[in-house]
Amino acid sequence: MLSQVITAFGAPLNAVDTPTPEPGGTEVLVKVHHCGVCHTDIHLHDGYFSLGSGKKLELARGVPLPHTLGHEIEGEIIAAGPDATGVVVGARVAVFPWIGCGTCATCQRGEEQNCGRPRQIGCSGRAPGGYATHVLVPHPRYLLDYGAAPPALAATYMCAGLTAFSALKKVGPVAAGDPVLVLGTGGVGMMAIRFAEAVLGQTAFAVDIDDSRLKAALAAGARRAYDANDPDAAKKVKSDTDGGPFAVIDFVGSEASFAFANGVVRRGGRIIVVGLSGGTMTAPLLMIAMRPFSIIGSYTGSLREAREMLDLVRGGNVESIPIDQRPLSGANQALDDLRAGKVVGRVVLTP
Q1: What are the tens digits of pLDDT across the range 102-152?
Q2: What is the pLDDT of residues 233-277, one digit of tens each?
Q3: Do residue 259 and residue 291 come from a single domain?
Q4: What distance lies between CA 210 and its chain's CA centroid?
Q5: What SS3 state is found at 234?
């Protein structure tokens, strides 16, 4: 098994050749054909998340090295343990990576993605990811049928697609006059624009700081797109949305993006924070009650939501986002390009 591995936080990934694992119990071995490159991979590669004001959430304890990144995985079942039932060797599947302990109350509610003792593939130290030729999946229930979707796109549905879908579901029922704003149109924001009409029955407005991503957002179906660098951007958004959007989905998660969201959301609306760029937020507590608006956190999505999302995909109700396929050996460059904001849509590695 060939992997691109973190051996030191912040240092380039190293190519490592190890014995291919053998599945036991309910485990399933998947030969990786496609693995998306996500912003979360950057934070894991750096070894920390920013908490603002120079503070960091260090990852050394939760992600011991060496570690293999990659949680947007599509591949082929090639072997299964003796207790893995219903497995078809040779089948192509998408891998749900947001796996919990399986026994806590959170997991029992079907919210494994929020488990306090996670076994998330590619994101926790307990489960190597898909920047490799093979990946071991703990149970067949995490292997999902993606229908006739392009395999590279199916890989990205396991994080970018699912994260966008779950955030859109948190908007709740909307009326025709309740517009939704997507803030940040990278890979996940682009997915939200693609899913918006199928989930909410309406197209979304979009905001970004990059002209190429704004053009891509319009091509993907955004109703209007605004450059956040424009000093009048907030005023234009409020004018075009009859006083402000009902919901702002912040796929950036920075101090600047939250401030923009807080400045445009309408009375009685909601801000859904998804992005992990980091920082702190400030808002007068009085105004949260008097406006009133809700602040909701959204972290990936559940296995149930993943299946619901793929039902839409198999029904042909969601179009693709731009996909840039690269060899596994290009993992370091892919991470660098994503850091530099050079990626429109998603980069997908092809082991």
Answers
A1: 999 999 999 999 999 999 999 987 899 999 999 999 999 999 999 999 999
A2: 999 999 999 999 999 999 999 999 999 999 999 999 999 999 999
A3: yes
A4: 19
A5: helix
Same domain for 281 and 256?
A: yes
Q: Is the pTM of this model over 0.90?
A: yes
Question: What is the distance between the alpha carbons of residues 176 and 167, in angstroms, rounded to a whole number?
Answer: 19
**Bridge partners, residue 52, by sequence:** 55
22 inside domain: yes
Each as own residue / partner, the long-range contacts of residues 288-294 (CB below 8 Å, 24 or more positions apart, any chain) are 291/267, 292/267, 292/268, 293/265, 293/266, 293/267, 293/268, 293/269, 294/269, 294/270
**Residue 77 domain boundaries:** 2-161+301-350
Whether residues 136 and 177 share a domain: the answer is no
- Domain for residue 225, yes or no? yes
Q: Residue 293: CB partners within 8 Å, gap ≥ 6?
A: 265, 266, 267, 268, 269, 270, 271
**Are residues 62 and 93 located together in one domain of the fold?**
yes
Match 């998340």 to its residue by tokens: 49
**Among 66, 67, 65, 78, CA closest to 32:** 78
CA 34/CA 76 separation, integer angstroms: 10
Question: Is 166 part of a structural domain of the chain?
Answer: no
Cβ burial 19-41 (10 Å sphere, 16+ → b, else e): eeeebeebbbbbbbbbbbbbbbb
Beta bridge partners of 31: 76, 134
The C-alpha atoms of residue 58 and residue 270 are separated, in whole angstroms, by: 30
Tell me the one-letter amino acid at 10: G
Q: Are residues 21 and 72 in the same domain?
A: yes
